[in-house]
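chain below, 404 aa
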Amino acid sequence: MTHPPVSVVVVSRGRPAELNLCLTGLCQLDYPQFEVVVVADAESRTGLGVFQRRIKLVHFEEPNISAARNAGIAQAAGEIVAFIDDDAVPEPTWLRHLIAPLLDPNVGISGGFVIGRNGISLQWAARKVAPDGEAQAIEDWGHDPRVFDPKEGVIAKTEGTNMAVRRVLLNDIGGFDEAFAFYLDETDLNMRLAETGIQTALVPLARVHHGFAQSDRRTAGRVPRDLTEIGASTAVFQRKHAEMTDKVPARLAQRRRLLRHMMAGDLMPGDVRRLLRGFDGGWTEGMNRVVGQHAKLPRPDDFKPINVPVSGHEVHRARFWQAKRAMTQAAETVSGGTRVTLFLFSLTTRKHRVWFDPHGFWVQRGGQFGQSVRTGPHFRFWRAKARVAHEAARLSQVRPFDGT
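prediction:
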């Protein structure tokens, strides 16, 4: 298989620790030629640390993700541009899986699956998009990529935190529409690329872990703080792609979302009214916003490849009372040039969680007899060695371990 050069664009605003973790994960990717373009504000730039010398850096203060991504594309010298959020971490094989369908010249964009906060369950899988911006699930997925031709009536949706697009196509259509400061920005890109007849691949094994870190628009618990830009972007999207604009369904969807948070105790009734007023105000503003804010983005020549200092992938295991020593050993192994996944099991039925440690190794922690995949049994008897082998086999297509 050939491996076209890839530019990975990361936009970061006010998240220095998350950006550092994302870059730690990117620098463990198993892909032969890629560069990283970071578009960051002053606060996020404080989290670059040792990575500053290894990346292309774009200073950017405007709170507009489409404009920020376009600034990153302008510095991207790869044949393909991949996108990941600053609060996400890729599996080591992310780019290999994500880029493979783009070897077909008819495929112009590919999107992967997104893992949620427990590190195991999917946050977003395969979806298709309608002209009003609503996304619907596509069922019956295995591990193989599927290619969608817009001529057949299905426009596949890619997620902004896990997608890749041919660089020439981004230049041809002017990148992201900067009328979308936040929300539906990548969905608008899907619609515009579909209009050109370009095919989209959805790739189940191209996986990133997404943290949903807090921002000006939501808390760390995903509770909305402001719906103004969601209202504005929804209006812009419908103006561009729907036969007629209709605020009511989108507003009802947001109201249902807010009521769920209120029932959970995260919002007060007054908060619901305030947030919906923000949506209404944003809709009005979006109905008058200038759309089609694009620029030509010619490809530069200065490709700056990342040299990945690790190879291979070891499995480590320990009991929970050995966690401190095991994590120290895992960090030492990573610093010595080998990726690590550490399994920490207790003699319980606790559900498993997975995360990427800031020291550069993966951790899966939970009960030896408990669930990892949430559709599995709540209790199953395992011997420790067999449980580790089972979990390593489950992960082997995204994390090929040494000796498996």
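The first strand starts at residue 6 and ends at 12. The chain has a mean pLDDT of 94.
thats it, cya
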